[in-house]
Amino acid sequence: MGKKLEKTLKDKGQSSASQNGDDENRTPEPHVCTGNFNQDYTELCRRNNMVVIPPVVLRPHRPPSPSMQHEGKLDKKGKQQQQHPEPEAEPEIGEDGEPIEPPPKTYTVKDKFEYFKPCVQVEMENPDKGDTVIEVIVRGWKIDDSMMNVFKQCWVAMEKLHTVNLWNTGLTGEMISIMAGFLPQCVNIRNLILDGNPIKEENYHLLIGDDSLIQNLSLRHNLITDKGAELLGKALATTQRSNTKLVSLNLTRNRITDIGTGHIIQALRMNRTLLSLSLAQNEITDVGAKKFGEMLSRFPLTHEEIVERRKLISEKGSPDRKTPPPSRRADSKDRPGSVRSSSHVDKDKKRDKSSKKKDTKGKDEKDDKKGKKDDKTVKKDTKSSKGSISFLGASVVADTVKTTAKGKDKKGGKDKKGTVQQDLEPEVPETVNPLLEPAESINHELWIAGNRALINLNLSRNQIGEEGMKSLLQAIQYQTTLSKFSSGSGLMRICLTKNKVKEDTETFQKINTLMIAKDPFYKPPPETPENESQS
Questions:
Q1: What is residue 439's DSSP assignment?
Q2: What angle do CA 480, 482, 486 make, to 5 degrees?
């Protein structure tokens, strides 16, 4: 018996060992992200066997000032509640017997090593709910391929995320291509900030491709050269296509010269979606400023643009229509196929008259019924008291809402079964192709009006001289006169400070006076008694 027990125990041990080995060799099931960023992020990092997992923390904010804290809160009636003053804490006394000053309450203090530790900062709509992250910020530590894959899986499942800020994170060209591949799947991401990430490939243009949903892109301090500017220009617009999503592009403090500026300006000739462009602190001279002036005022079309214009006009004038099949009577000599016999015409007329009579009768009967019902309701309401008058008004409003809803239901289709109504969907205005705008022939060239969609332009801290300023001044003057006769507001803000031209010159002052009237954020200085006396 003892030998049999030993054999059975050995067999059980071997089987359990084999089962444990099989469990270790099995690949774990893939993690399905739930939208809770903290949980999904930590679980995916553990599965990737990361030694150090940067924690997810709330983005720190400046604490409120003491004056805001001591302000009384309003009660339900709108009156300010009386707050009892808190008793002041007794000051601590040091070894010398003198009181020690407490630390200030306008900021928080952290250990320097803890402050510089890698972490993922988040902004949340509701800190108590993990699936309400709206912004992800990573600052000052390198993101590798495994971490980018973790972010890829997490961000796609986050419904409320709209801003991603990766500052000085050591991105590479491969990571940019990975982001360009999965960011279109993130439905709500609109703001992308990649400042301080210089890349040799300069393939930032992949982020604003045809499938991109990015509206605000910031690429500051990325050492972008004319090569990257050319790629960005081609992604913004060509003669055949144009980016219709990007609204703001920030290229501050890069290495873009007049050549790269020319590629971006060439794109702005056809792009009518970009509203804000910043090329501050680059290497732009008078040559680039003159190109900007030409693009903003009016410019002649190139041969390629003229060919594309003719194609668009021909397609617009003669849309594709299916020709009807030839009738059997087309070959007959007595009567052509398009002419109908008099008997058929008479029958059709009789049918139309009978149908019209039926429709008018049905409408009259419905109107009579409605009139009777309305008379009955009015009689009942006149007998009631004054308090019922307000109820009558509410019922009338409710009836109108019901009737409009019924009309929408009939037009829109089945809303009870879960189908989306077409009438409730917002209509997106289509941008007109600039090549279809009216052109003027000057010296055997076709000229069209310049870009009037761009409203904010920043060219400060460049190398623009007097000639460039004059061309920009002429463009602004042309836009102000053209805005009276055409659509589009044109430039509303332009920044030209810290260039070769001093701010007290005549051209600079003229530009300022013209733009002050357009600037929506300009606030005139407050009037003082001295100014009033002088006036």
A1: -
A2: 125
Distance CA 263, CA 386 (A): 73
The single residue listed with the structure tokens 């009558």 is 392
- Contacts for 38 with CB less than 8 Å, ≥ 6 apart: 56, 130
Q: Are strands 133-139 and 163-167 parallel, antiparallel or unpaired?
A: parallel
d(CA 129, CA 403): 40
Q: Are the beta carbons of 496 and 478 closer than 8 angstroms?
A: no
- The Cα 139–Cα 167 span in angstroms is 5
pLDDT per position as a tens digit, 464-505: 999 999 999 999 999 988 776 666 789 999 999 999 999 999
Tens-digit pLDDT profile for residues 280-326: 999 999 999 999 999 999 999 999 999 999 999 998 875 554 444 55
Cβ-in-10-Å burial (0-12, 13-18, 19+) of 145 comes to: exposed
Closest CA to 295 of 317, 325, 274, 322: 274
The enclosing H or E element of 481 equals: helix 466-482
The DSSP secondary-structure symbol of 33 reads: -
CA distance 207 to 179: 7
Residue 491 phi, psi (nearest 5): -60, 135
Element (H, E) at 299: strand 298-300
Q: How long is the chain? A: 535
Nearest in space to 189 (alpha carbons), one of 154, 215, 219, 162: 162
Q: At 248, give phi and psi (nearest 5°).
A: -135, 135
- Residue 254 to residue 282: CA distance in whole angstroms: 5
User: In sequence order, which residues have a C-beta less than 8 Å from that of residue 426 and are 6 or more positions away?
Assistant: none
Structure tokens at 450: 């310049």
